[in-house]
What we know:
Layout: H1 9-34, E1 38-41, E2 56-57, E3 63-71, E4 77-85, E5 93-98, E6 103-108, E7 110-113, E8 122-130, E9 139-143, E10 156-157, E11 168-177, H2 184-197, E12 201-206, H3 211-223, E13 226-230, H4 257-267, E14 272-277, E15 282-286, H5 292-302, E16 306-317, E17 343-344, E18 355-359, E19 364-367, E20 372-375, E21 378-381, E22 387-393, E23 406-407, H6 415-428, H7 430-434
Parallel strand pairs: 11-12, 11-14, 12-13, 16-21, 16-22
Antiparallel strand pairs: 1-6, 2-3, 3-4, 4-8, 5-6, 5-9, 7-8, 9-10, 14-18, 15-22, 16-18, 17-23, 19-20
Helix pairs in contact: 2-6
Protein name: Glycosyltransferase family 92 protein
InterPro entries: Glyco_transf_92
Pfam family, one: Glyco_transf_92
Amino acid sequence: MLCAGKKSYFAAALCIITVTSVFTVSYLSLQRLSHQPKVIQEGRRCRGEIANSTITSLKDNRTFIISPYFDDRESKVTHVIAIVHHEDVKQLYCWFCCQPNGKIYVSKAKIDVHSDRFGFPYGAADIVCLEPENCDPTHVSIHQSPHGNIDQLPRFEIKNRKAETFSVDFTVCISAMFGNYNNVLQFIQSMEMYKILGVQKVVIYKNNCSHLMEKVLKFYIEEGTVEIIPWPINSHLKVSSTWHFMQDGTHIGYYGQITALNDCIYRNMQRSKFVVLNDADEIILPLKHPNWKTMMNSLQEQNPGTSIFLFENHIFPETVSSHMFNISSWNTVPGVNILQRIYREPNRKDVINPRKMIVDPRKVVQTSVHSVLRAYGNSANVPMDVALIYHCREPLQRDLPRESLIRDTTLWRYNSSLIRNVNKVLSQTILQAQK
């Protein structure tokens, strides 16, 4: 008997707790030991072909590697953003090649499939491996086995290895652009609003778009505002354009949006003070402040220890327009003129409006679309009188008469700068091509 003597309930409970604690500590120690890097080869040169695609399929066709990132927030690990089949992928290993000593280490990976999979068989996943103590590997290979030939495995560059100083205050992550996207006018207006509000970089995970949209993207890339991440996910999986599984044979929801958002956070972890997670038809509009910088300074002062700020979504239906700002030169450009959409839907009874986020990327471990799944620090819902999400799209409440909508002209505070900036972009892209 492990526990004898006193027969009181207290003694028995204390004994059970003690034994359970001992077994738990022992189990966790063995688990960590099993994940420690082990040398399997020495005197080798790193020769595997370096992967250059945004999405790389492993040989099992059940694991798709996006990108590895160095992460030392808790321990020295390589954190790989990936897509995996939630049932079929049970075991993976990280292969590290350390130069100049030529030692090859293998670490057993911890595979963490994100909880927000919404019924699809594939979902965003973190593949996390402890790194060798005496080595700072620049590349990693992922394999189903701890045995084999590293020369046959693709090598992935481990990003964020070198510490950087912030190059920008705000980066917007847009995922994913798909469906031959052609809402050109609204896209340009959103981009110019982002810049007015203080954004220096917009990262777009692009699946496909129209030829006209390509011209606009080229302009913003050359300007230095836009960074395009190719996102050919439908070359690997059957994608759905909806967020929840419909029993229709698709593999992953909304073009892998959640995976792209997680990659964008890690990609900008060391170069952007804040990362903004929203779609191209959404703008976080401050009501009490002129721009995002002053708004975030105020929110951080009022919410110490908070790293996730959530803003409430409000629909401005594209089907209802004002006669104001009917600018003739814009009428030939495909897309919606948001300056004419100043009527928003009222809140629906017993329905909570979804939220989008501005986050400190260094405090995020896992994110979903409308909330962060794992993070260091607190989350705060931003009151609607401070800011709201202007979301111009097709209506959710189609049967509402116009008089039931709420007239909201907050966007018009920026109309002069917005019109001037949009005209400048159009004159150098769309209108120039039409002459």
